[in-house]
Amino acid sequence: MHAPEFVIKPRSHTVWEKQCVRLHCTVSGWPDPRVVWYKNNVALDPLANPGKYKIESRYSVHSLEINKCDFDDTAQYRVSAMNAQGELSAFASVVVKRFKGEIDEFLPAPRLGPVSEYGITFQTHIVDKFGVSFGREGETMSLGCTVIIYPALHRYQPEVEWYRDDVLLSPSKWTHMHWSGDRATLTLTHLNKEDEGLYTLRVTTKSGYETYSAYVFVRDADAEVEGAPAAPLDVRCLDANKDYIIVAWKQPAVDGGSSILGYFVDRCEVGTTHWIQCNDTPVKFARFPVTGLVEGRSYIFRVRAVNKSGISRPSRVSEPVAAMDPADRARMRGTSAPWTGQIIVTEEEPAEGIVPGKPLDLQVTEATKNYVVLSWKPPGEKGLEGVMYYVEKCVSGTDSWQRVNTEIPVKSPRFALFDLAEGKAYRFRVRCCNSAGVGEPSDPTEATTVGDKLDIPSAPGKVIPTRNTDTSVVVSWEASRDAKELVGYYIEGSIVGSNVWEPCNNKPVNVTRFICHGLITGEKYVFRVRAVNAAGISQFSQESEAVEVKAAIASPAPPYGITVLECVRDSMVLAWKQPTFIGGADITGYFVDYREVIDGVPGKWHEANIKAVSERAYRVSDLKENKKYQFQVRAANMAGVGIPSLPSNTFLCEEWTIAVPGPPYDLQIREVRNDSLVLLWKPPVYQGRDPVNGFYVDIKEADAPEEAWRGVNTKALEKTYTKIKDLKEGEKYVFRVRAQNKAGVGKVSDVTEPVPALTKPGTKEIVVDVDDDGVISLNFECGNMTPDSKFVWSKNYEEITDTSRLSTETKGTKSKVVFNRPGEEDIGVYSCLVTHTDGASSSYTLSEEELKRLLEISHDHKFPIIPLKSDLAVELLEKGRVRFWLQAEKMSNNGKVDYVFNDNVVSQGEKYKMNFDKNTGVIEMTMESLTPADEGTYTFQLQDGKATNQSSLVLIGDVFKQLQKESEFQRKEYFRKQGPHFIEYLSWEVTPECCVVLKCKVGNMKKETSALWHKDRHQIKVDEHLGFAEGVLKLEIAQISKKDAGVYEVILKDDRGQDTSTLNLTDQGFKDLMNEVFSVIANSSTPLKITSTDEGIRLYTFVSYYNDLLQVTWHYKDSAIAFSDRIKSGVVGEQLWLQIKEPTEKDMGKYAIEFYDGKGGLRRTVDLSGQGENRARVAGGLPDVVTIQEGKALNLTCNISGNPVPEVTWLKNDREITSDEHCILKFESGKFASFTITGVNTSDSGKYSILVKNKYGTESGDFTVSVKPDKISISD
């Protein structure tokens, strides 16, 4: 047994007039508590107000429903639970609001049903709504909603209105309104705190109206002076008269950190920009009388707050107000002059010469410590001329009256007195005056003590915060006691532990319940409240208890879409759709009610199930055959049982006998993306005559007509889910499913709700992962979870309950399933759904190929291999050192290496040097040299955590011997090069001039280094004082012959050591050298030519150098020529020739000379065909010697032949001569050449020649001229 306890307390509500409100709570206790509802502590009796109240108690959930709320229903409601163990109460407030307009104060009730003007019913939907908004003073803010009116009529204009705190807004410089035909927009052009409040859009058609509301918060602008208070707000002008106006305002919520000392009031005449401060010292009271105005002028006002740090920004200016008598305002017939704001008034004709009577009804309307305000009525006489007033005062208890305004009488029947002594009591009276004189004084007022008559309100009472949404908290409090002229309340909030308080509202609210928005989800807050009136701001209330910012839970909305899945004689199986709003908590079950319908009249509801059912399908039993029934369904969660659904259609209870299946049910849509989604359903309860063997899915666009339905699949689906692809992004679709059996295709399911093909922002997919231990898992992350969200994993879209093969882990916003023993049994479609979100879900298909791939990766992770960039290799370094090395792709700092030789681990020492560069992954081991004992297998074994690898290199047999030999050679080479050494050893080359040069390239030389040349061990040359670090040594052999054959040697030596290079030029070495010499000689030979001699024809060629060892062969028609007395060969200097005596036609043909060079040789050829007749010839006519006496003329002529005509050249002493006056040379008709000297002298003596030449040959004729002083003699 235990006392009553409220599991869920009732929540406070604010509703519009004519709406219904429902308060509910969940109570536990044993025995079951008795629950009573109270309104303002008066017990409610539903029978006393039939139809007004409805009280229900079911399943420990108790509710009070108030129908058609009006203002009288605004109250505090209490629910009391009592049993034998005690009594407990809980409270909730209901506030009923009305719209306020310009003409009618209240909004009309919505008009329901068809409208006669159009004959149709308009359906209005407000979508794309503005949410709770935050702005800052000085900014611009736009609020907008899209309005859909169906049917859409061309040029139909609904009535669109905007309200702030239930007050209708009109267009002004502060508020701009726009209607585009489908979107309503309100723009706040320059935010001020006056703009804070609840904004409501109201769209009215002929069929009624729809509204939407959201709160707008306006934060203070940054202070111009650090620490200065925020600006006052809501500046208004009260009680305006001819020269007197009372200005009122509201204090700001933020004081800047120090108390506000008071306020300055500024005025500005309309049409000017000059502001004048009205009070010299700050006033603390939030009202102030402004005097000294010019009658007929219009003014605007603003207020500034001041504290010890400085003055605030000015408030928003007031509306313009004219300084004039209220009666004159009513009789005003003129207009205001725009540049001065002056009002022109026409009055009745005044009476002249009459002294006015006493003012009437004098009273003190306001008294503070700064001023006292008097008001009265003018004297009763009409038509008096220019009535003005004098005000007089006297200290209470005396009869000494003192005129206050001695210089200028006032025109208004209002007057403010300043500079009165605080705490003293005064009496006041007023006299009228005009040009006729001063009238009698009015009756004096009662004694009035100077001081604040309005007290600052007391601190509000207990503050109670309750959860509301993820970013807001409902704060309620007890009103300030005995507060007079209360303006409202300011609420502040603070994160627990921060000690930083922030205002939740910047405009006072005049209720005791407020929703604080813009809070941080998951943080804990405390709240406090202050009350405000014109006298000031109260002390803070006590801090509330801490509350965590998270969504509150409520009972679910009603289910909908009730259908029949199967019907037999006495029972029916029903199905329904999940509520659109589940109340912030999981639905724990459903309750079904039924009632019989007789002749269209429904009967009483009966409970079909006492215990909640978790499925969205239920068999209702104990029905009567051939009777008609209606059904309703309620959903329940931890907050309680929700209101019932609308009654279903009327269904006849008769047994189904159709052969085809009934409709599938419980269609669900998941994994919505831009081009695809997944559709799930449950098979029909009624299968027909044969079992269901497949399903067909239909699709159509949501707005398309019925004939637009089309099939998704042509072949029946075996499973109860499918992925629908190729959707159009942004398009809305609906779906339905049909089942089939052998008899055919059955009834269609209910149609799904329209769903747009859009990937929601932040959507993530399931990611497969294989960790370092080889564990395969599927991972899903959701970024928009609520505190009550859960991850639900499924295989083939059936929730996973068997944990033997899969394990689930969830941390924060991430969840994963782990495959315990992955195998073929795990192949399937895995999906994850996150509850209490907007449909966050994803799937992953594990196919046979994918499983195989993952198992391979898992094996690699379980038994990881360190990847290598290169396997173990060997190379030789300087000095013949041996380096074994490999390179790993990547190893951590914890990686290690074992170096193994012939299965034995070797370590760092004199013989082995190891190095492991972990940055590059290069692992190496070096040895100074190799010995026969080092022959074998080398292995590097790598380990990095679990990952291992090894690489081996086998060095045995010829491979090892070759490496050892090369190492030893490199070692010797290193030491050789420490002193003078040969970079290139001794070699030979043959120059184009056939000079043989022995040469070698040396290095590391110095001045003391000498180079000794030897042939056959005999020194032949010494090079000393070489003086270069690196150069070439040479030995030239100008005309090589057999005597030059031998072994040549060069020895380099100095104090650092010596090096030797040897060149063997004997036998084959000498033969190779000579062959190169022969090759150079052959390549220097000129083309084979032909010339005529006295004996016949000579073939010849010239070479640059002739060596006696040169071997040549003459050929005729490709056969070697057999020499005889008629055909001979020989060498004259550098000319090689072949002489043919007395050639005949048989000698015509191709001749060649072949040079032998030990390789391919070189051949020069010439053709003698036809050349005996055509070659150039000197036929005769020239003597051998001519002796002539000086002064005589010499004339010689010879015959020339040849084809083509030869070229003729004359020579003297082997030098060419040309024709001139002394020596005349002629060649006529291509046959006759003449040589004439007109007068010889001794200088003409010498050897003369004629040279004739064509392409077939060359021939010359020679003669000698001798000039004597005696007679000429000619000898043969």
UniProtKB/TrEMBL annotation:
<feature type="domain" description="Ig-like">
    <location>
        <begin position="110"/>
        <end position="217"/>
    </location>
</feature>
<dbReference type="InterPro" id="IPR013783">
    <property type="entry name" value="Ig-like_fold"/>
</dbReference>
<dbReference type="GO" id="GO:0005198">
    <property type="term" value="F:structural molecule activity"/>
</dbReference>
<dbReference type="Pfam" id="PF00041">
    <property type="entry name" value="fn3"/>
</dbReference>
<feature type="domain" description="Fibronectin type-III">
    <location>
        <begin position="558"/>
        <end position="656"/>
    </location>
</feature>
<keyword id="KW-0963">Cytoplasm</keyword>
<feature type="domain" description="Ig-like">
    <location>
        <begin position="980"/>
        <end position="1066"/>
    </location>
</feature>
<dbReference type="GO" id="GO:0045214">
    <property type="term" value="P:sarcomere organization"/>
</dbReference>
<dbReference type="InterPro" id="IPR003598">
    <property type="entry name" value="Ig_sub2"/>
</dbReference>
<dbReference type="InterPro" id="IPR003599">
    <property type="entry name" value="Ig_sub"/>
</dbReference>
<keyword id="KW-0677">Repeat</keyword>
<dbReference type="InterPro" id="IPR036116">
    <property type="entry name" value="FN3_sf"/>
</dbReference>
<feature type="domain" description="Ig-like">
    <location>
        <begin position="4"/>
        <end position="95"/>
    </location>
</feature>
<feature type="domain" description="Ig-like">
    <location>
        <begin position="756"/>
        <end position="847"/>
    </location>
</feature>
<protein>
    <recommendedName>
        <fullName>Myomesin-1</fullName>
    </recommendedName>
</protein>
<feature type="domain" description="Fibronectin type-III">
    <location>
        <begin position="663"/>
        <end position="762"/>
    </location>
</feature>
<feature type="domain" description="Ig-like">
    <location>
        <begin position="1188"/>
        <end position="1266"/>
    </location>
</feature>
<keyword id="KW-0787">Thick filament</keyword>
<dbReference type="Pfam" id="PF07679">
    <property type="entry name" value="I-set"/>
</dbReference>
<feature type="domain" description="Fibronectin type-III">
    <location>
        <begin position="358"/>
        <end position="452"/>
    </location>
</feature>
<dbReference type="GO" id="GO:0032982">
    <property type="term" value="C:myosin filament"/>
</dbReference>
<dbReference type="GO" id="GO:0042802">
    <property type="term" value="F:identical protein binding"/>
</dbReference>
<keyword id="KW-0597">Phosphoprotein</keyword>
<dbReference type="InterPro" id="IPR036179">
    <property type="entry name" value="Ig-like_dom_sf"/>
</dbReference>
<dbReference type="InterPro" id="IPR050964">
    <property type="entry name" value="Striated_Muscle_Regulatory"/>
</dbReference>
<dbReference type="InterPro" id="IPR013098">
    <property type="entry name" value="Ig_I-set"/>
</dbReference>
<feature type="domain" description="Fibronectin type-III">
    <location>
        <begin position="231"/>
        <end position="326"/>
    </location>
</feature>
<dbReference type="InterPro" id="IPR007110">
    <property type="entry name" value="Ig-like_dom"/>
</dbReference>
<dbReference type="GO" id="GO:0031430">
    <property type="term" value="C:M band"/>
</dbReference>
<keyword id="KW-0393">Immunoglobulin domain</keyword>
<feature type="domain" description="Fibronectin type-III">
    <location>
        <begin position="459"/>
        <end position="552"/>
    </location>
</feature>
<keyword id="KW-0514">Muscle protein</keyword>
<dbReference type="InterPro" id="IPR003961">
    <property type="entry name" value="FN3_dom"/>
</dbReference>
